Amino acid sequence: xxxxxxxxxxxxxxxxxxxxxxxxxxxxxxxxxxxxxxxxxxxxxxxxxxxxxxxxxxxxxxxxxxxxxxxxxxxxxxxxxxxxxxxxxxxxxxxxxxxxxxxxxxxxxxxxxxxxxxxxxxxxxxxxxxxxxxxxxxxxxxxxxxxxxxxxxxxxxxxxxxxxxxxxxxxxxxxxxxxxxxxxxxxxxxxxxxxxxxxxxxxxxxxxxxxxxxxxxxxxxxxxxxxxxxxxxxxxxxxxxxxxxxxxxxxxxxxxxxxxxxxxxxxxxxxxxxxxxxxxxxxxxxxxxxxxxxxxxxxxxxxxxxxxxxxxxxxxxxxxxxxxxxxxxxxxxxxxxxxxxxxxxxxxxxxxxxxxxxxxxxxxxxxxxxxxxxxxxxxxxxxxxxxxxxxxxxxxxxxxxxxxxxxxxxxxxxxxxxxxxxxxxxxxxxxxxxxxxxxxxxxxxxxxxxxxxxxxxxxxxxxxxxxxxxxxxxxxxxxxxxxxxxxxxxxxxxxxxxxxxxxxxxxxxxxxxxxxxxxxxxxxxxxxxxxxxxxxxxxxxxxxxxxxxxxxxxxxxxxxxxxxxxxxxxxxxxxxxxxxxxxxxxxxxxxxxxxxxxxxxxxxxxxxxxxxxxxxxxxxxxxxxxxxxxxxxxxxxxxxxxxxxxxxxxxxxxxxxxxxxxxxxx
Amino acid sequence: xxxxxxxxxxxxxxxxxxxxxxxxxxxxxxxxxxxxxxxxxxxxxxxxxxxxxxxxxxxxxxxxxxxxxxxxxxxxxxxxxxxxxxxxxxxxxxxxxxxxxxxxxxxxxxxxxxxxxxxxxxxxxxxxxxxxxxxxxxxxxxxxxxxxxxxxxxxxxxxxxxxxxxxxxxxxxxxxxxxxxxxxxxxxxxxxxxxxxxxxxxxxxxxxxxxxxxxxxxxxxxxxxx
Lengths: 666, 226
Hints:
A: alpha/beta, 6-stranded antiparallel beta sheet, 18 helices, B: alpha+beta
């Protein structure tokens, strides 16, 4: 998918709980005002948001309020990898400039993680990143504090586990003593115990305390003098110290491993969901399917019921699909009928608001927070395609699910966008094609009408000025020419009038039930006057042939086919018109025994403006409309037109019409 | 003849002159009504695209006091205005562009109808004679070449309706209204079927005399045959 560069500027500012953030927001707001750009503020909520100190959370809230004051539309998305989330959001909302604070850069440290700016550069190489400098070092302290506070306090469960492990180690120690193993082995058991504590618990404190208690226990139970805390060997202090360090390192490693494993698992899950969604979206052929996929994926991901609302053009918002979680596939999807109960009006109203404002609402947000569902817009680039409502039933979504949810919506919005673009392209192509056809038509018409008109005008002028001088034969010829030319023009105009009924590629049919033989009779009244030079016969079926048709159009089809036979066969040829019922359809055939048409030309015969190389009897080529028009008319009726060879020579043009049965009223 | 387009008017006038018909010409609706009421012509050619009045209104006016045959000339090939005119009381129609032969043919048909109408003023009108077709209204049966025609009740009703309006084009809706009292789509479809069977009975062989003329999309007409 190529990235769309929106012409207008869109400023995206990253919010954080840092005190310097206000400066960043201010700078971004000024930029937005200067560019006349759309201004959005984004906060990426990490998993451990609830563990942040109250001070930080308060500061964040005031930053958010400040941003709103400055006219930003604030969005919060969840995620741990701020850079990735910001980059993704920037892409979806077509942000042209991303504004962040300098404290994201950080100073050179030994274990320096890649800075936010660097990461952003990787994930969003096309965006311009504006860094607002600041001299505060608050952030570093913040991080420090983060490390110590919060989740690092041991839980009760962990304490019990630690105690149990220590007890087990001590027990094993006794066993070893019983078997006569040396103390060195017992120490290793305690080391093992401490390592186990570090791995299974979260807090590093427990590992540290574990080491201390291990040493004490070891000292108490296994070192002479037994059952006392005295040691004779000072080297046990060293042992204790080493055990402590070992436990801390293991604990930290184990924690990091666990964290990575968790993150990795989440990333895998997220990737899988997005991959699945993407795969399904690839196969979607229209926007309804895309929205259906969105509902299904979100529903399975969050295990909650979802609804999708859409709005057509300027019509009212409607519920399109309901997806129930926890039901088997057959019952899952329902398309609501129009007569739903009145309290659904509230849902519609909220959905409508979300659609217009392109902002989420519902529980957990500021707008309509009392309802039991969350409403999110499916929007991209200023265009909203629908609203999805998730029936959270007052449960709040965990941050990870929330972030995947947002990603799914983003994917769907992009798929809808690309579908819409494809549609617009197609419409434009059709319009261009029609224009081309129209201009071709006009060109041909003006040429082919001018010719006979010139001849008529010229002849008439001759008559006006030289009537006396011309002999009878010449006069008769002139009159005949004038008559022929005008007849030719009448025929052309009739065909043109019918073509003008093709509007946007649609032929308007005024259908009525008519008898084929009546229509045939009518056509025979309007055919070329040279019909008398040919043997025209009509073969009718015994059955009464009725079909639903636009009688004027089908009459024209028959006229065109018969005229075609007359014009392209020599004098005296036989032309047969057969109407019969063949397998549920009515077939009308015009057979002639003229020279016929070569196989390679047969395909093109029904093309518009195709005149072939045949010289028509009166030397005039013709516009090439007749057969093309026949094809359009017949196909608009749901029938088919074809050309076959007649035996021994000549053409057989046939067309079919669906047959109708009627009930006779007596 | 009521026609505002001068060349067409000249064409009709020339045709009438060469065939020795007497004519009057009017250029708009009000002139037409004036002439019709003062001179009482036998046939009126009425163009539907008149500048001052809708042709249908002219027809309604004339029908208010006279049964004189009216042939409408319509420029468009749409059927709606012809049907409207016929339902308002016109007898026949010509579509532009028309040939001189067509004009004369329709004129002849109308004149024959005139003579039939005059015949009907005579006392003995329980019988209808048209070429080899004879209808005995009193007995309720029809004959072709003195052989009785086996007609279903509906076919007989149709035949009588057409016969009573010989020379006049009757629209589908007019016929269905008169036979069934209503004009649903199904009725009009049935009508077509009945007419085909009726025509087959009246014109059994390939080259027989045509009595009933089909006007696709408009209606049917019984022709006076001599």
